[in-house]
Amino acid sequence: VVTGLEMFHKTLDLGEAGDNVGVLLRGIDRDQVVRGQVLAAPGSIQTHKEFKGQVYILKKEEGGRHTPFFSDYRPQFYFHTTDITGEIELPEGTEMVMPGDNTEFTVKLIKPAAIEKGTKFTIREGGRTVGAGQVTEILD
Description:
This protein is mainly beta and 140 residues long. The protein has strands spanning 2-7, 10-12, 22-25, 48-57, 76-79, 82-89, 102-113, 120-125, 128-138. A hairpin with a 2-residue loop joins strand 8 and strand 9. One of its GO terms (molecular function) is translation elongation factor activity.
């Protein structure tokens, strides 16, 4: 149960989608809450582990990868404030993805995330952004 909201150390009566707020919760221990979790009304969202995404892979000149990647590549996927490792499966007939490519592929996350069709994400590797995309289809 939410008992209060704060933003920049000021009490709020209302928080809206997109606001970064501090939430005072009753009936839950502090160690049960971690950054990246989603606060929502029961039953209003679902978590998923597998999706298709439309993606742009940054070129070397844009700060991205220097080399192509293949199926089974396992970078970090950032959705809002959470990051989760995911394994990429390229479509049949696609051997590799080059820096600068726009492509679609399937991602299998190692743990479920609160995502839906249209959710935007970034792909990071070794502390740098290597791609950006959007969920086009939920598969599980």
